[in-house]
Amino acid sequence: MRPATTRPAAYATPTRRPSDHAVAVSGVTLVADPAGALFWPDEKLLIVADLHLEKGSAFARRGVLLPPYDTATTLARLAKLAERYAPRLLIALGDSFHDSDGPLRMAGADRARLAALQSGRDWIWIAGNHDPRLNDDVGGCFADVLALGPLTFRHEPAAPPSDGEIAGHLHPVARIARRGRAVSRRCFASDGTRLVMPAFGAFAGGLNVRDRAILCLFGSLGFTAHMLGEHRLYAVTVERCLPD
Q1: How far apart are CA 221 and CA 210, in angstroms?
Q2: What is the spatial distance between Cα 123 and Cα 117, in angstroms, rounded to a whole number?
Q3: Are the C-beta atoms of residues 26 and 15 closer than 8 Å to each other?
Q4: Using one digit for the tens of pLDDT, what is the confidence trace for 45-90?
Q5: Rg (Cα) of the chain, in Å, rounded?
Q6: Would you give the distance in Å from CA 70 to the centre of its chain?
Q7: Is the dihedral of CA 237, 239, 241, 244 positive or negative?
Q8: 91: closest CA among 130, 24, 37, 135?
Q9: Nearest-CA neighbor of 240 among 173, 172, 176, 171?
Q10: Is residue 190 a contact partner of residue 196, using CB atoms and an 8 Å limit?
Q11: Chain centre to alpha carbon of residue 201
């Protein structure tokens, strides 16, 4: 891993809030943020998945017009997290761009925002199925899989189950009944041994946690959906979640 070219002398320790939501994976306590990111306090590590930057421009090339603001919106949300947690390292768990040409389509202002986010910290792009190879000029380092202590970071969850795995790819969403109506929210899906992260990108879709692709990872309904709320997360057993 290449060290960052500039680095602050010290990293501030974020003040824990009453709403901070702890999630344990293979004995490691992580903070799950309502924005859809994970923070590992001991390592000062921030983790996001499936940014899908430049999804709007990718669709526009195919004649499907979407508002061209997804990259700016996603990077602005990420900047707020970087300010709050002051990570020394940020890991993006694949599908960071909607396709490998995404960096070439970035507006100059968005490219500057990304460079500012990377300044003073290490940044690792994990390869995804949408962006298996990125241009070197996006900054940071590149890896297929990263192991750090008891945790392993990759884009697509492995089969058979891998203890300590944190992955993305599946964009989990939980659906519950609340006050007589169904409510769907992005969520973290975890059984304490492995965890699948929600998609962070502004235009990213989602897959119900009761879908076979997610159920097969955990082997039963005995895992937890940590649903994203506006200011906090809500832990719900998947048995209580509704199918589509």
Answers
A1: 8
A2: 9
A3: no
A4: 999 999 999 887 766 666 666 667 799 999 999 999 999 999 999 9
A5: 17
A6: 15
A7: positive
A8: 37
A9: 176
A10: yes
A11: 8
